Amino acid sequence: VDKLIGGKGNDTFVLASEFGVLYDNNSKSPGNKDFARIMDFNAEEDLLRLYGEKRNYFLKSANKQQRLLFFDSNMNGRYSRRDELIAKFDSIDGSLGDILNDAIYLI
């Protein structure tokens, strides 16, 4: 698990490269031990760098404070237990509604 903490102002949290998702354990399991733990995401200022397209990702609630970001590993277009956990958001400022729309996607 990598802890990612942004500074003041705009931050880009890098979760992918041009080669693919960075937090992928390369197995059929969801990768519960291989993910980025984003400590201070501000949805009004910060961005994610992801691989592929928006439709390849699912944002789920773990509890009132924590959100989970999954990559659609099996490319079936819907969340399943085999999808790859790539990030946990521990503290989020602002609305998460647009973070996948605003993300930078690499193909």
What is the topology?
Layout: E1 2-4, E2 12-14, E3 16-17, E4 20-21, E5 36-38, E6 41-42, E7 47-51, E8 57-61, E9 67-71, E10 84-89, E11 92-93, H1 99-102, E12 104-106
Parallel strand pairs: 1-5, 2-7, 5-10, 6-11, 7-12
Antiparallel strand pairs: 3-4, 8-9, 9-10
Features:
globular; single chain; 3-stranded parallel beta sheet; 38% strand; 107 residues; 5-stranded mixed beta sheet; mainly beta
Overall description:
- The structure is a single chain.
- With 107 residues, the chain is mainly beta.
- The chain is built from 1 helix and 12 strands.
- It has one helix at residues 99-102; strands spanning 2-4, 12-14, 16-17, 20-21, 36-38, 41-42, 47-51, 57-61, 67-71, 84-89, 92-93, 104-106.
- The strands form 4 sheets. A 5-stranded mixed beta sheet has the order 1-5-10-9-8, with no helix packed on it.
- A hairpin with a 5-residue loop joins strand 8 and strand 9 (67-71).
- The longest helix has 4 residues, at 99-102.
- The model has no long low-confidence stretch (mean pLDDT 86).
